[in-house]
Amino acid sequence: MASSLTTFSDEAKIALDTFSGRAAGLFSPSLRLGVTGLSRAGKTVFISALVHNLIHGGRLPLFEAQKSGRIARAFLEEQPDDAVPRFQYEDHIAALVNDRIWPESTRAISELRLTIEFESASGWNRLFSAGKLSLDIVDYPGEWLLDLPLLGKSFADFSREAMEMAALPVRADLSEGWRALAATIDPNADADEMTARRLAESFAAYLKACKLDERALSTLPPGRFLMPGDLEGSPALTFSPLLAPGDRRPRSGSLQAMMERRYEAYKTHVVKPFFREHITRLDRQIVLIDAMQALNAGPGAMADLERAVTEILSCFRPGRGNFLTDLFSRRIDRILVAATKADHLHHESHDRLQAIVRRLADRAVTRANFTGADVDVVAMAAVRATREGTVKQGRETLPVIIGTPLKDERINGDTFDGKAETAIFPGDLPEKADAVFDVSGSQQPDADGPAIRFVRFRPPKLERTAEGVTLSLPHIRLDRALQFLIGDHLA
Ligand SMILES: Nc1nc2c(ncn2[C@@H]2O[C@H](COP(=O)(O)OP(=O)(O)OP(=O)(O)O)[C@@H](O)[C@H]2O)c(=O)[nH]1
Ligand SMILES: [Mg+2]
């Protein structure tokens, strides 16, 4: 009896919650899901695959509501915010499915509303809930998110940190030009537009260089230096950290005063509105990371990725007394850190990849002093571009992945034409997650080069049923991600 009593009071509480907290939401409860990640992490592909699988009833055995047949239908509806660009779902799917090309880079925020009609699993919920959930998905560049910590930093803090980061071994050579230039400049000299511009351009060039493939470094703020949008060339983007600016108020009319004013303008006109309008309204968040790329580039890039995830997490769940707390109107209660592109590895390595991400997220959670939201991790592929097989080499049988490498991808001196299928032995991830974080190099799995072999594949060719119906996009563990992100709202 006791157990059914708890069940009853729990459900009553949920129902009450529905009544009071979301009075309007009783008829169409909504959940805002933020999808972020540094550029090329896989956001657009993830959103397209998620929506496609829900609309077309994809194979999602770990997504409970779908597995038990309780989802009546899922469809796109008009989004709630008229001023935000719509996520171009149809275009992206056409590219993926018909042309087998990956969608183009997105550079701005966009939104999509997916409504799910379902039957609740519990009789009580069926009485009280509309059996309808609107999922508002917001896609935005992770670089912009990294700007949030700036709100709590003075220009002197910002300068000091930027200089420290720039001098780290992984960045030192890339930042050399900018640091040399900054060293020749007296912050106390008269403000001069051309000096400001030269410094800002040199700083932006260094930030851009960090992002190139072979370095795979995560970005440093300010995010709009890489994706200026319509702000290109405006004074709010024409500034740079300075070498050793004093903490005291700079002389008015000095270069430092000018840089400080612009830095503050950037915070007021760019950073704050973005967070107030978008981030603070999120309920759930998925942070996509390209761990494969970072693993390939080595421990320095992994440490850098960890730093970026730490910064991102510290933005989502600011503690009491934090300057960000007041900005939040809702509380993000679940965050999923997801490594995409697991289809580049044989399934035997999927758990290892997940262990690596778990270790990265755990350390980030500790460092960010983060509490109060559930954080989970997953190694997944939103779109599975490969299948698995084995190849005999002498006496050994090697596990391989088979797919169509993108045109001009190379491995071992071979260049691919974008048409032929190829089997690739991707290599194994190290058994111990620690090895990939070891910057000292002593434990590096393979000192001669990256542990895993990595080529980009074209999207898969979709199978058709006997009746000619195209099946939904294949994936790896997308269902697990869905279950964590929205499963409880469909219970
Ligand atoms: N094999 C495989 N490749 C993927 C997957 N997801 C993304 N990719 C690759 O990663 C690239 C970037 O994916 P996008 O979804 O465009 O990344 P994004 O985060 O939206 O990038 P930006 O819009 O540039 O910020 C794609 O062009 C693919 O090459 C996946 O699930 N499997
Ligand atoms: Mg995108």
Characterization of this structure:
By secondary structure, the protein is of the alpha/beta class. The chain folds into 2 domains: 2-140 and 278-383 and 476-490, Rossmann fold (3-Layer(aba) Sandwich), CATH 3.40.50; 150-267, no CATH class. Helices cover 36% and strands 15% of the residues. The chain is built from 14 helices and 12 strands. Strands 2-3-4-1-5-6-7 form a 7-stranded mixed sheet. It has a 3-stranded antiparallel sheet with strand order 8-9-12, with no helix packed on it. A hairpin with a 2-residue loop joins strand 8 (387-393) and strand 9 (396-403). Helix 2 (43-55) packs across helix 4 (89-99). Mean pLDDT is 84; it is low at 1-8, 13-26 and 442-448. Bound molecules: guanosine-5'-triphosphate (GTP) and magnesium ion.
